[in-house]
Design brief:
Blueprint lengths: L11 E5 L3 H12 L4 E5 L2 H10 L4 E5 L7 H12 L4 E6 L4 H9 L4 E4 L4 H31 L10 H13 L6 E4 L6 H10 L8 E5 L5 H9 E2 L11 E2 L1 H4 L4 E5 L6 H13 L1 E3 L6 E3 L3 E6 L3 H6 L5 H7 L2 E4 L10 H16 L5 E2 L1 H9 L5 H15 L4 E2 L12 H11 L4 H15 L4 H8 L3 H11 L3
Parallel strand pairs: 1-2, 1-3, 3-4, 4-5, 6-13, 6-14, 7-10, 10-13, 15-16
Antiparallel strand pairs: 8-9, 11-12
């Protein structure tokens, strides 16, 4: 990045150098960028500053009172300023020791005599690393708070509505229909409903209706008795009986064949299950939750879904919005997934640069959360550095030419002020209301942003 790119980053720097003139030259070069520099002349003074102060980057000469004085500063910095980065300044003959310092946690080293432009760029990279780490910690805090309700990640208005509905319907026996595109997390919502119910200590049973023939589906749902068909060597209960006194979740209920829909309706209305091969009823008591990615009203019009069954299963509907309609949740999901997959790989959680995160936020995610998590897993596995930049985002996570054409077409005829307002609104949402970061992402000054927010009535 150029010097101008860093002028808005005002970092706290500690310079440890026993040569006064050299220390002042370094400090002056960094102060020109807006950084605040504190100079000390040795290990003892550095330890006091590190114990009492707070610094983003520590620049220390390797050889001062002793040939490895800088290593003492490094050890103390790691103990008292674990979020900071340490840069070693070394003479040519000390390069071996400086490389050892990298293994001890130093960010990098630079040899004397200093090239001030290289030095400034190195410090700025270290500052950016610290800033990204702090941003990730703040974001992880938002993840933790958003992750506090039944594992559901999302702080957007649509997801707050979903969570509120779960809390309202959970304790009741009302049947719930969960709708939404594939990959939006419908089973997570179903399990949350069970966990909020009075049946939380009982079984939660999930069954997917998609791709099942009528005969197999009937056997899976209602069970059979010995001899009901070839290969039925013993009695077997279906998922309704298995979920007795608990919660039964039928996913992709819109894919159920019509003849099975009438049988399901009878069970839901009477609470009686008849196994294949017998006429004996078995009473069941289940909390019924279902889900579909289909438009059931449209299926009813086409006579592909029973209207009476629809009314029976839709006591309350919870609609999960696609990821493209809650983009402000994407950074939360990205960082949660990155942390999870990094832990599985035994790696530290990577940071995502703003350019990479913006690319992920801008993508439409036709596969929704499932696709997002698969992409993040791939990126974490393939990452070779602790920072993921836009170059590491897979090529397929981009707008297609058709998407871009539709996107531009949607913008046609819209006034610039409306576009500007919408850009500010979405960026504020994405950054959790952080004005400094919003201004940076939009490429405008904070004062300009503040004035525009007042002008557009945005908070």
């Amino acid at each position: 990045m150029s010097t101008a790119d860093h002028e808005a980053i005002h970092a706290q720097l500690l310079i440890v150098e026993d040569e006064t003139d050299h220390a002042e030259v370094m400090a002056e070069a960094l102060r020109r960028l807006g950084h605040v520099c504190t100079i000390v002349d040795g290990v003892t003074s550095a330890e006091e500053e590190l114990r009492l102060g707070s610094f983003d980057v520590i620049v220390t000469d390797l050889s001062m009172e002793k040939p490895d004085s800088g290593l003492e500063v490094l050890r103390y910095a790691r103990e008292h300023q674990s979020d900071s980065e340490v840069i070693m300044v070394t003479a040519h003959g000390d390069v071996g020791t400086a490389k050892a310092a990298l293994q001890g946690g130093a960010y990098d080293f630079i040899e004397k005599p200093l090239d001030l432009e290289v030095f400034r760029n190195l410090v700025n990279r270290a500052v950016e690393t610290v800033r990204l780490r702090h941003h990730n910690v703040r974001l992880q805090g938002k993840v933790d708070s958003a992750f506090g309700f039944e594992g559901i990640i999302g702080d957007s208005a649509p997801m707050r509505k979903v969570i509120q509905t779960i809390k309202q319907v959970g304790p009741s026996m009302i049947p719930v229909l969960i709708t939404g595109e594939s990959g939006t997390g419908k089973e997570l919502i179903a399990r949350a409903i069970h966990n909020q119910s009075q049946r939380v200590e009982k079984r939660y049973v999930a069954f997917n209706c998609a791709g099942q023939s009528e005969s197999l589906l009937e056997d899976q749902l209602f069970g059979h008795v010995k001899g009901a068909f070839t290969g039925a060597e013993k009695d077997r209960e279906g998922v309704f009986e298995y979920a007795d006194h608990g919660t039964l979740f039928l996913d992709e209920i819109g894919d159920m064949p019509l003849p099975m829909q009438s049988k399901l309706l009878r069970v839901l209305e009477t609470g009686e299950v008849i196994r294949l091969g017998t006429n004996t009823d078995h009473h069941v008591d289940v909390r019924f939750v279902s889900a579909t990615n289909r438009d059931l009203k449209h299926q009813i019009e086409k006579e592909e879904f029973r209207e009476d069954l629809y009314f029976r299963i839709n006591g309350a509907e919870i609609h999960l919005p696609p990821l493209r309609e809650r983009r402000e949740d994407i950074p939360l999901l990205v960082n949660h997934a990155a942390g999870r997959f990094a832990s599985e790989q035994g790696k530290p959680q990577p940071d995502f640069t703003e350019a990479a995160m913006l690319r992920l936020v801008a993508y439409n995610w036709p596969g929704n959360i499932r696709q997002l998590f698969n992409v993040i897993q791939r990126m974490v596995v393939m990452a070779t550095t602790p920072h993921i930049d836009v170059a590491e985002v897979p090529d397929d996570v981009r707008m297609t030419d058709e998407d871009e054409h539709l996107h531009m077409g949607a913008l046609a005829g819209i006034g610039l002020d409306r576009l500007e307002k919408e850009a500010m609104r979405q960026t504020l949402a994405m950054t959790g209301g952080n004005r400094e970061q919003t201004a940076e992402l939009l490429g405008i000054g904070e004062r300009t942003l503040y004035r525009k927010l007042k002008e557009y009535g945005l908070k």
